[in-house]
Structure formats: structure tokens, C-alpha cells
Design a protein that fits this description.
The complex is a heterodimer.
Chain A (H helix, E strand, L loop, with lengths): L2 H14 L7 H33 L2 H10 L5 H12 L4 H13 L4 H13 L2 H11 L1 H24 L8 H8 L15 H36 L6 H4 L6 H9 L6 H13 L4 H13 L2 H7 L5 H25 L1
Chain B lengths: L1 E6 L4 H17 L3 E6 L2 H5 L8 E4 L2 E5 L5 H9 L1
Parallel strand pairs in B: 1-2
Antiparallel strand pairs in B: 1-3, 3-4
Classes of the chains: A mainly alpha, B alpha+beta.
């Protein structure tokens, strides 16, 4: 499927630049061109497809469905899946959170959504497909959904409603199950396409520079870090590796798109995949900017508990992956 | 005189929407009062789930995305 990219990279490096095959620079450049084109192409495809899903996804309808129906635990799965399809924009988290509370949806279910929403987003999926292949991407997505569910279920046991900010508690007190039906938007695809397209371009413009820099750094490291270098420090037997990686990852939000390509090289140099996935989940899923936004609806203590539970779940899934992969 | 409100918690998308609306209003020479609503309590009064939202004369016109210039033009001249 990607042979043509290899041919293109070969042509640029050997045909256009007349570099010697087998040389250090030629190999590095060839690798860089091939990787960048492949990853950006896949990133584009995934972001575009998710854009289409997004455009048609009836946010209100799902919220009302969750609000009206008793689902015997399935609501956690639904809320978590809901987090997958909603757009990656932490600024929508708060309105959605309030919207859930308003609709009388239990706090635990809302948390399930809140965990998965940033964790499984179009940019992360796109990069994962490009860097690690379909199988690992699926593992990442499924574990992201399970992680949201588990965190939500655990948090629902704690009865945390009293830790919401006062005005949210007011909303909670007045919450009612949504009954009204919303009129579906009937915009034809031809009119949606330019909007989706514009959105795709905006998203890509925001992340592509980081991705390129990440691939370049990864490419450099590729040549200089000896094979198996990390096995000494971060082997599966080292029990501190997973928690360390996760806790290191939480403050690294802004450069997630640049960090993924680097992590891929680290994995190829011997860092266990479970540790790496835990690290990436920490980078993508938990962030200080998100915590700042959540301060509007939650007390600091609740944010602490929320982040704590999610961090523990991430660490646990890191161990689990190291065991089974 | 149109009363335009842009609801958003201050994310990049909301800022871009505001800038676009201001631009179109200026270009089209429409008389309009543009208000940026960043207070989440105010925003939630409109019962929206996704931001940014463009409200014209208290009617929700666009929600959850940045509109295009032509779209705003159409909304303003309607």
C-alpha cells in the first residue's frame, strides 16, 4: 500500500539529491521522507473520516437518550464511546459536562465521557495508525474506552456530587430528564463538506509542525540510540517504570502530537509497549489546561480525585499490557 | 440593528469565530452589536452542548463549529 511512498523517497534522496545509498545521511533522510509522508497521509485520512462522523453525530439525541433510559451499566459504555466521537476540543468538555448534569445523567457516567473524550481523539488515532499500525491502534482505542468506563464506575462509587462547584450543584438540583425531541439538522453533504474540509485543514495545520519535528527527532534518535538501550532501565521487570512514565506524562499535554513519533522510536529501542501506552495515555488524556477548565465545575479536591483515579487506571492498564503483549 | 452573541469559553475556535463575525460585520456594513459571552453560566442558559455558538437576536444559528465567512454573510443579511 505504501510502496509508492518508498519509491518517492528513494527518488528524492538518490535521484534528485544524488546521495550515496548506504550513507548515514541518505538513510536518515530516506527514512524521514518516507515516515513523514506516510504518517501525514494516514493522519489526514483519519481526521477527515472522523470529521464526517462528527458532522452527522447527533450530540443532543445521545445526551437525551442517556438521560431518558435506564441502561443497567451500559450507559458507561455509551458515554465512553460518546467521548470517542466528540471532537477533540477541551473547551467543549465543560459545556458538555454541564449538559450531562442538566439532563440528570449520573456523575460517574459523565466522568466516563470526560476521560475518553480527550484520550481517544482523531489526531491520536491518526498518529497511532501511522506510527504503530492498525493492531496497536485498536488496542489503544479499546483500552481507552474501557479506561473511561472503569474510571467512571469507580468514581460513581465515591458519591462525589457534593464536591461540585455551588452553581453546578444548583443545576444538579434542578436537573430533569430530557423529554423534548430535537429537530435534526438537514444540511446536505455537499454543504457540509466544505465545513468539514476547513475543520480538517485547521486541525492539521495545528499539529503537523509538531509531528514533523517529532519525526525528525525520532529519526535522529533512531540512528544514535543503540538497539535495546532502554531495556536496562525500563524493562518489564522494573515495576517503577509504568508509574514513572505515567506521572511524567501528565504535564506534557501541549506537544502530544510531537511526542508520539518519539515514543515510537523508544518502543523500537526496547521500551515495553505497555509502558509506552501508559505514557501516551498520560500525555493525551490528562492535562493541566483541562484541569484549569474543570475548575469551573469542580472543586480542586474533585479534580484531584478525578485525575488520581484516571492516573491509577492508566498505570494499571500499563501493567496489564506489559503482561499480555 | 442585529444583536449578535458569540458563546464560548475562550478556546481558539471561539476566538476565531468572533474575529470572523467582526470581520464580516465590518465588511458588510451591517449595524450590529457583537457580544462575546465567556461566562459558562451565561452560556449554559442557551442549553447548548458544544461551543462555539453564534446567537443572532437570541436565536441559535450555529453551534459546535467555526462558521465560514459566506455562512455568516448569509445569516447577517437574512
Amino acid at each position: 500500500m505504501f510502496e509508492w511512498i518508498q519509491e518517492l523517497a528513494d527518488w528524492v534522496v538518490f535521484g534528485l539529491l544524488h546521495l550515496q545509498a548506504g550513507g548515514h545521511l541518505a538513510e536518515a533522510l530516506n527514512f524521514f521522507i518516507y515516515d513523514s509522508i506516510k504518517i501525514l497521509l494516514l493522519l489526514f485520512i483519519v481526521v477527515f473520516l472522523m470529521g464526517i462522523v462528527n458532522s452527522y453525530f447527533p450530540v443532543e439525541k445521545v445526551r437525551n437518550y442517556l438521560s431518558r433510559n435506564k441502561l443497567y451499566g451500559l450507559e458507561y459504555l455509551m458515554a465512553s464511546l460518546f467521548g470517542v466521537v466528540t471532537p477533540f476540543c477541551s473547551c467543549s468538555s465543560v459545556p458538555l459536562f454541564i449538559g450531562f448534569v442538566q439532563g440528570g445523567i449520573p456523575l460517574g457516567v459523565t466522568f466516563a465521557f470526560l476521560v475518553t473524550s480527550p484520550l481517544v481523539n482523531e489526531v491520536a488515532i491518526g498518529l497511532f495508525v501511522g506510527l504503530f499500525g492498525l493492531k496497536i491502534t485498536l488496542i489503544y482505542v479499546i483500552s481507552g474506552v474501557l479506561l473511561g468506563m472503569t474510571s467512571g464506575l469507580i468514581l460513581s462509587r465515591f458519591k462525589l456530587e457534593h464536591l461540585l462547584t455551588p452553581w453546578v450543584k444548583d443545576i444538579l438540583a434542578r436537573a430533569e430528564r430530557e423529554g423534548e425531541t430535537f429537530q435534526a439538522e438537514r444540511t446536505p453533504f455537499s454543504e457540509r463538506l466544505p465545513i468539514i474540509w476547513e475543520e480538517v485543514i485547521k486541525i492539521l495545520r495545528g499539529v503537523v509542525p509538531y509531528v514533523i519535528v517529532g519525526i525528525a527527532i525520532g529519526g535522529l534518535m533512531h540512528g544514535y540510540i543503540p538497539e535495546g538501550f532502554f531495556e536496562r532501565y525500563m524493562s518489564k521487570e522494573n515495576l517503577f517504570a509504568v508509574p514513572m512514565a505515567t506521572i511524567l506524562a501528565v504535564p506534557m499535554y501541549a506537544n502530544a502530537s510531537g511526542i508520539l513519533p518519539v515514543v515510537q522510536v523508544l518502543v523500537s529501542k526496547g521500551i515495553p509497549l505497555g509502558t509506552a501506552i501508559a505514557f501516551m495515555m498520560g500525555v493525551v488524556g490528562l492535562s493541566l489546561p483541562e484541569a484549569m477548565l474543570l475548575k469551573k465545575v469542580m472543586s480542586l479536591k474533585l479534580i484531584g480525585i478525578f485525575f488520581g483515579v484516571v492516573t491509577l487506571c492508566i498505570i494499571f492498564s500499563g501493567y496489564l499490557f506489559n503482561l499480555i503483549l | 440593528m442585529k444583536n449578535i452573541k458569540i458563546l464560548g469559553t475562550g478556546c481558539p475556535k471561539c476566538k476565531r469565530t468572533t474575529a470572523l463575525v467582526e470581520e464580516v460585520v465590518k465588511e458588510a456594513g451591517v449595524e450590529a452589536h457583537i457580544e462575546k459571552v465567556e461566562d459558562i453560566m451565561e452560556i449554559m442558559k442557551y442549553n447548548v452542548l458544544t461551543t462555539p455558538v453564534v446567537v443572532i437576536d437570541e436565536e441559535i444559528k450555529i453551534k459546535g463549529r467555526v462558521p465560514s465567512k459566506t455562512e455568516i454573510q448569509a445569516l447577517l443579511t437574512a
